[in-house]
Fold these 4 entries.
Entry 1:
Amino acid sequence: MASSLMSLVNDDSRYQKCFQLFLERSSEHQCMRDFIHNMLPDILASIGNGKSHLNVIGVGSGAGEIDLEMLSELRLKHPGVTVDNEVVEPSSTQLNNYRVLVSQKPGLDYIKCTWNQMTAIEFEEHWKVKKMTKKADFIHMIQMLYYVKDPGATMSFFRSLLDKNGKLLLMLVSGESGWEKLWRTYRNQLCNTEISQCVTTGDIKSLLDSKGVSYQSYELPSQMDITECFTEGDEKGELLLDFLTEVLDFSKTASSELKAGVLELLRHPDCSVESNGKVIFNNNLGVIVIDQLT
């Protein structure tokens, strides 16, 4: 990352504001829901080995809406089970939102939540220090591998926690998305080298292939309206640019050359399509499912 630029992840309140606008402007959660209701049930069918109690770990669970939809499908696939749900989320704001959601949503008596306000790396350290032996039937890591230093090591640790027939589900931006083009072009200027911010499913597949790990993969079509980014001084456009570049106050702190280059690329057919006066960014996601270590 260029020395004059600061990573958006360093300002949680600004990040949450950008993220909420991103959700409003994109079909991200809708494409996740389509996957959860149409494809996830078959993935979850084989977990648990007939047990009446299942252990689930959610890493980077955010405010919990997507987690609870996955747990609902799990319960439909395995009627009568109880669930121990380990929630791992570093943002106190998001974790509190998750707690409130659980307290207000009816029919969740079968779930016992354990709240861990920590990063994936802190959770790994905590798990090892406590010498935990509990195994998980289902672990999901939704849009979070960008925030760890070594995605391969983090995946390996969580995979090692899987019980017999357990599944590890990873969801992140697709190697076929506009994000991949943006990051490939401006990785050195934009990406925070302390974390793996510019990782896509393409990178994860290459990593797994190199280790001979088998997996199933799915592409989830998604898009994002970034039209406001092209109006100078537009407050929402600036928030979206912060989110796209992961740079705090990108419009104010980036050089004029970098800003012009990023805006030009965001408009390029490799990243977006223009339709009815709108610029629609390719926000496709990918899902990778890995089985228990054998």
Note: DSSP finds twelve helices and ten strands in the chain.
Entry 2:
Amino acid sequence: MGTYSVLLFTSTFVFVLLVCSVDPSCVHVWAFGIQMLWQTFWHLLIQYREYYLHEPVCIRLFLAVSSLMLLTQRITSVSMDLQEKRVVLKFGAASSREACVKLLPLLSYTLNFTTLLGGPLCSYSRFVSLMADIRPSPPPNPPRVVFLKLIQVLLLECSRYLLVYFLKHNIYDPSSSFILYGALWVWGLSVVLRIQYYSHWRISECLNNAAGFGFWENSQEDSPDWSRLSDGDFWTIEASSRIAEFARRWNATTASWLRRLVYMRCKRFPLFMTFSFSVWWHGLHLGHFVGFWTWAATVKADNNIHRHLRPKLSSTLEKTYTFFSWINTQMIVACVVIAVELRNLSALRLLSLTYVGLFPLFNIILHILLKLNKFY
């Protein structure tokens, strides 16, 4: 990150000062506010350079801001632990040496590079217990597990390369291609973008496993379980037949963090507020607003539609319903991913030209009709 690593050190220094000087019941409010303002400043600076000055942004800055987002997760996770008294850090009459000893685990957790570069989020208590439990006889050696996961990454990247090759040589042309091909082309593009995330998460798992993280000591299975620190598995997530189910499984540790930080603390419109905060946390691009608000609306619609239709289906129709529900989920996810990843108006034009944007719209309209039918 070069000089941009100052972004992370500044956040950590300010957070440590807050932990030492602010009452634990108030530290979360201060930590959350300062950290989000600091992160938002850099997100807006990137947008200013990209869209107003039309300057190329240094890749080191992108990397630093990406890590800053993950650092925000970690700082707010600890601040909530302090607020809820799950973690107790007292510095009252401690000497400077004792204070430093107490701060070392916090600094180690905050700046732990194995999860700072790509996640996933691990709780402070879990991290400290892993460090405290290090013994001369370590957990089973992870090289075999790491190797197998790297093979999975290789297969994912090969699949992504083949898909990119196909999409480049078969560009969708609205004037000469039929509608179904356009929808399939957009779906293929969204799969390419999603595979990047799956590969990234698997590489992060490998890095953490190689360092000894992610092992579940109480596992009763024959083979050691190294999957307890993961953001998601390709087959599990992609098999989701409901958009609400997909939302819970996608980027699992971040989803759990958002649920704890926003959803469980909001008394009014928790779902909308959670996805709105996700827009803020991701960087406030136009595509983020469209993508995450569409996602929120379709999750709400999915819960209502599923609650009304599922009990009325016979066992023979249930499999057909699940299949079409899976297709519906895939197309809605395609809309969300295209909007969030492309970030600008080009994504909206692509979704309108291929009519893929009709899928979330249909779900929202059906949700409204079911609500009206309930009242009348």
Note: The CA atoms of residues 310 and 317 lie 10 Å apart.
Entry 3:
Amino acid sequence: MMSPHSTPTLLVPLKLVSGHSPRLCTLKTNVMFLKTHKTASCTIMNLLYRFGEKHNLTFALPKGYHFDYPNFFNSRSVKGFLGQSGQHYNMMCSHMRFNQPEVQRVMPADTFYISILRHPVSLAESSFNFFKSLAPAFKHSPTFEDFIANPWKYYIPYLRFNHLARNMLWFDLGFDHNAEFSLQSAQSVVAEIQQTFHFILLADYFDQSMVLLRDALCWSLDDVVTFRHNARTNAKPKCLSPAQEEQLKKWNALDWYLYQSFNKTFWEKVERFGKRRMDKEVAILQARREELQNLCLLKEGKPPKVKQSLGQGVQRCQTGYVTMMKHTLNSNLSISDKELCSRMIREEYEYTDLMPPCQGCPQLGPYQ
């Protein structure tokens, strides 16, 4: 059983990697990540699991591989949660449809809330390929171009898993993805999200997002260095015409408004952070990633292992009918490097299976 958990305030010097003087900041260890679909969210989960393991933090874990998605989150779906006063966890990051009151029952009051968005045009293209066998609207559409031309021909509102075909981000954040677009109601929803979430990352500017996240959480550089997870290997994004892109924006009008709003606030954050400083820190982040990739990953010889995903429901990160990239480690790693590299490539469901279910349970092994 989880015991009541409180995290002491810890001021640590944040080592700036761009030549600026270190500053004192508060290390944040209570984090809720609303995992959205096809937005590099599996990559974010890897860094959260690694950080939690490193600091011996507790995770609110689902009884399966998601919190009863696509239903609204309910605290009863958390493994081992008894609803007792003071029973909280440090981290929460598995798939859910957001339900703030229920999340607040599980997470401490000082939790840092984050999520991630992606441009709706590229998101729609990726989702069509990934969820082709799961979303009825996609399944019945011969091609992505056919779907774009006449989505209502294939789309039936409120049919299970059809939320994957329209305003998917709006749905995951807990709102009605089939609602007619209204500027006033969209502004109200965005204001509510801004009040709840401390930072919204953008998958389209992933490295800049990692720099800002690191700064907000007072984490180290290696805490936010990641390899790509759950990326497809057998298809390139389609080149769409301007007219097709506009059609997708209209079809996903709620997501498009959401993205535009948080794209604006994202670049305001970059402006405050400093563009020159951002460019330097992104370059250092990318250099460190390349260094770790060269250390960890097999590049020559046999190709990386791949796996087929056949869409048996939204249970794990892989749910569509596409070939997904699987990293392969170099074979000549030292014991400590192999431990580090194994954590870097460990996938969401593998971490979920291995994470201890309670505070004080044995960890996976000594963290290197």
Note: The two ends are 28 Å apart (CA to CA).
Entry 4:
Amino acid sequence: MAGPQVEVDGSIMEGGGQILRVSTSLSCLLGLPLRVQKIRAGRSTPGLSSGAWQSTIKVLTGPQHLSGLEMIRDLCDGQLERAEIGSTEITFTPEKIKGGIHTADTKTAGSVCLLMQVSMPCVLFAASSSELHLKGGTNAEMAPQIDYTVMVFKPIVEKFGFKFNCDIKTRGYYPKGGGEVIVRVSPVKQLNPINLTDRGYVTKIYGRAFVAGVLPFKVAKDMAAAAVRCIRKEIRDLYVNIQPVQEPKDQAFGNGSGIIIIAETSTGCLFAGSSLGKRGVNADKVGIEAAEMLLANLRHGGTVDEYLQDQLIVFMALANGVSRIKTGPVTLHTQTAIHFAEQIAKAKFIVKKSEDEEDASKDTYIIECQGIGMTNTNL
């Protein structure tokens, strides 16, 4: 089963957890033994991290690193060596991907969404259906919120020709975590390529502003109202529907607040802006931050927002044919994902400035990929 060992430098480009996520996923899928060295060498705390939440934005807070690696190991009965907190090097030897029930628990507010990112491509090529029990933070810093995963990532990634179900059992927040989602996925024979190059025009804007635990409902209402006011200044002709929500006590662990706003276009593109409440930051500011993020994502002319870009790269690399997505400025996370998809999976990517007339004045790009046509030999 095993091919030649792939050597990955964990310190280049994004130099954080994303290199581990992309490289272990691809290693698992392709049956290639992997060695990653110099893990997080560019970060303020090198090595695998458990959950020391640094304040600097540059550090990928990583209780999810270790649980993500362990989950991939368990998905394929592989062997993982030197994977402990603080380790700067890991080796991973994958075996056959199997379906069934798998649990991953960050035991902190480490992101369940990042656990899903690392495992989703693998379980699509399993021998049978999978049920992933992911525990940790659902609405935590430095990672997509679970609402983003369900409202934006899911409908777009399903265009590759598969469906998955995501059941949010409990929401968990920084610093306690305690959230749980259950993801159910059936395997596919192959992934279809996607073509997301026609943005269309914005047809609706909607979202949710939430409070959980002891935080007053007024906080949710204030976040929503401030976000609506901010969007109205720029987009006057659309009804903006942001629902304030009090998370039910039995469905949320700990205290948290935040907001996510989605814009949908005539061609089915989805863009988001989101923000989480923090101690000492007033609710209006949180709402405005999310609104401004959404508006920025709508200005660049792309068909995906800056957070979806890198999450689609692995699927494009595996698909059977040529995929194209139109984006705003290509993020470092996306460049990193492309680098490792080329190195490990041998997919071919071309990134070029969009030549469409309506994009002439904008920073808009086309990312094109000749996928490898990965086939599920179990089916």
Note: The first helix runs from residue 17 to 30.
